[in-house]
Prior knowledge:
By secondary structure, the protein is an all-alpha fold. It is about 75% helix and about 0% strand.
Amino acid sequence: MSKNMKDPANWEKTSSQYGYYKLARKEVWGYSSIDFAMNLVFQCIALYISYFYTDIFGIRPGHVAILFAVSRLWDAINDPLMGTICERLSFKKGKYWIYIMWGAIPFGVAAVLTYTTPDFSYGMKLVWAAITYNLLNMLYTFIIQPYISAASLMTNDQNERTRLQSTRMMLAQSGGVVCAIMLPNLSGFLTKYMTLAQGYMVTTAIMAAVMVIILLWGSHQIIERVPAPPVDPNNKANIKDVFRLLFTVGPVFIMFLLFLGVYTLSQVQSTMGAYYIKYYAGREDMLSWFSMMMMLPSVAGVPCVPWLTRRIKKKGTVMLGLVLAAIGALVLYFMPPGALGGMLAARAITSFGYGILMGILWSIITDPVEYADWKTGKRYTAIVMTLIGLGIKFAMIIGGSLPTAVMESAGYVANEVQTEAVVQTIRNLTTLLPLAVIGVTIVIFGIFYRLDEETVSDIQQKIADRNAQRENLS
């Protein structure tokens, strides 16, 4: 008979240090399955939405660029609001995990609507795309911010957090692989019975249904062992706390820039992949394979993270992932149009580096939370996660809006033979833009990030001592 892991009597300590608990295997896989499920839908957006809007729904690239940019501006308001809501509220059943359960079904419905193509006029198509795309992003924020914040309440043990996040990101990237294969291939198969646009909608509906089931199950596997600080009714979190943490707590700002750089790499390659393989390589039939090579090798990269962190520490692991991603982008730049094997190999190098980054970034993300708690005396986990989320959302401006705007200015016309200038623009956006972004990220993170394992452990002990003193005084 299995133990009831919700019962504190069954919690296993890994150290005498405050909040150091061992995570049960079912809990690790339950928590991680949520990101697998989210990526079944999120990667449909990241990998194919720009291509879907321009080449299937018939929206001009310049208008897609504006749509993405306006959506990110709204995120700059919506995301901090969600972060402050999470910090201002606590529920009897838990602080963070409950949002996942509440958001599962609405998020699945919004995904299907985003890939629905009603027979509207061009202007109404833009309105439909704007409403559904923004609704989807808002619901994604509603789930993902509490989800990533919940890890900080499951355990304080850095090794357990690394194990949790490595498993999580391995499953997240696996969800991306499923999406990369399923969406174009199943949609193409369904064209025997319906239009391609309808095929995209039906395929998304299938994956959304699977996602909802997993989210509902996985949310109930999360155990918030480390008590969240009580909400002070006279000193509740507000929007000012978001920007105060961003601009006055150095490690939080550096982490924001790190996520901005890494996710810009991912978003650029996701946005441009379909255009690159269709117009530069001339192999539209290889779209699912090319997309898959951005995801599949990353699944192998994630499990390497615990081994790497034991040998070159967290910061060294981040730097290795960044360098590999940059090498892959550089190699891809030198591939001629017919070198499909070389293109796939270059994509695989970047993907492996990206997998390492996904495994380590979500392991060190809680370190700035500890630092901010120590410096400010307030543990605003969801607000720090909001800032990281903003880094990801702003990456979508650089990786989504910028490429489509540049393509529009170069003269791109959907489903036509492109001019040489457009083809070279597609090539440069796919390779040189992410290379430049990663290069800047390497310099910034390498020079300015200084939270090593020993420093974080020391900070955690100081926080525990401070909290104990507060309890004694009260």
